[in-house]
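Obj: model holo form, ligand = zinc ion.
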Amino acid sequence: MITLGIETSCDETAVAVVEDGFHVRANLIARQEHLHERFGGVVPEVAARAHVEALNPLLDQALHEAGVGFRSLDGVAVTVGPGLVGALLVGMAAAKAISLSTGAPLIGVNHLEGHVWANFLAHGEPDPPYVALVVSGGHTMLVHIPEVHRHEVLGQTLDDAAGEAFDKVARLLGLGFPGGPALDALATQGDPGAVRFPRAMADSGDLDFSMSGLKTAVLRYLRAEQAAEHVVSLPDVAASFQEAIVDVQVAKTVAAAKERDVDTVLLGGGVVANTRLRERMAEEGARAGLRILFPPLELCTDNAAMIAAVGAARLGRGERSSLDIGADPNLRLAP
Amino acid sequence: MIVVGIETSTPHTSVAIGSERELLGAVSVAGKARQEAVTPALERLCGWTGIELGQVGGIAVGIGPGLFTGLRVGIETAKTLAQVLSVPIVGITSLDALAFTVRHTHKLIVAVIDGRRREVFSAIYRALPGGVVRGSEYTVASPDHLCAELETVPGEMLAVGDGAILYRNQLEGLGSRVEFASTIRAHPEAAALVELAVPRFLREEHDRLHDVVPMYLRKSDAEIAWDNRDRGTGA
Ligand SMILES: [Zn+2]
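Output (holo structure tokens):
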């Protein structure tokens, strides 16, 4: 069974071909970072324009790489949310046109479930229950997955997503956009204990997150040091900031697994590419007796293979989406 | 030759199927149509007309100018259909399609589409036997700016399009030499795209698939702000 995946929820145009739900035959991404860099963030109209230009050549390329034609598709999976509505609609228009003209059934996929399923592409078929941490530029949430396709949101960010905090602080440190990877690299040369930034919500007793206070603390620290005419070690600031974020993510994830009595944790989303988060999560997970799984780097960031994988699983259960399906920019994992 | 037309430049979504001889079927949803309805509309139209997509020989699509999000849905749908079906595609501007439908006039045709944010997209046409010929650039401007432009154009005019209806008061300032087309002509129709595209397909004057993109005529807000910032610091 061949499933085509299309993902255009933000600033990556992505197309993938997945066989039998888990075997990735092609996984292509046209990045737009260079288009958004000067604005310091993703501009929805710029993203939507770029998707229209990138998507059709990418479809050709992905099918060519997978060695299949449109006629051999058994399903078409597409992200319907959450994301930028104008961007989502481009991918959905293409997916619907493919479904109508080939007869392959359409299945709308929740982008967040995609990030969870990226793990199964790397580690095999799911065997719940799980606790998942989805952490990216747009999301930071803890999810309990008692059975496949069932989600219970345990906690989420009350303000910025972790990836957003990385990008904003990277900007304060003059690292450009997107700053996450640059900050990660800079932090490896710094001392994570140099500055004690606040661990927001660490003791809130629930599983929610808050990032905006941390960003403000970094700004305040930089200003105070400047005013005092101290030389600021940017690697130290980067490492200390990163440590504060990672500390809270790790602690809450372990707490969530304990609370639900689950021994396997899935990590998903672009921020999972962060080396310190992977490191600390593995350490603390081992200490707590948890199995910590995360996808390879290319499946952490937005991609269409994860969308095709979810789509294949849902199609396999007999689910179908109508050609009338609309985009839902605020789509949730659970009510 | 059977051609599918898709038009989503304005809040009026339409899909049509036709040939060199006749219009086989058309669906138009006036008002605030959801452009996501394009593919379902085409599916229904195929059912009603008994046409299968495998019989289609070409796709005609409205490329704007118009409302960006809707345009992208129509264009992405059309491009992907052409790609999957391996058939040629032709992009036609919304203003050309509007002018074409009111071509039986001796007056100059001013096609005006609402661009939101108190701006209109427009172009001026002259009718010829069998069609129209455009006599101006495609432009985006405030309604006042368009009126000032039209002041300098002599002769009688026929104003057509949702922009002409929306800014009728301003355009009426040009006096009785401006006539307004019927409101049923206010939006470009997919049927007009089919009629305009068929001869181009027969002459094999189609577009390259990857070259078919929306005619935006206006940058994104972020880019406009960026340009202004550049100008501010550069001066
Ligand atoms: Zn994502």
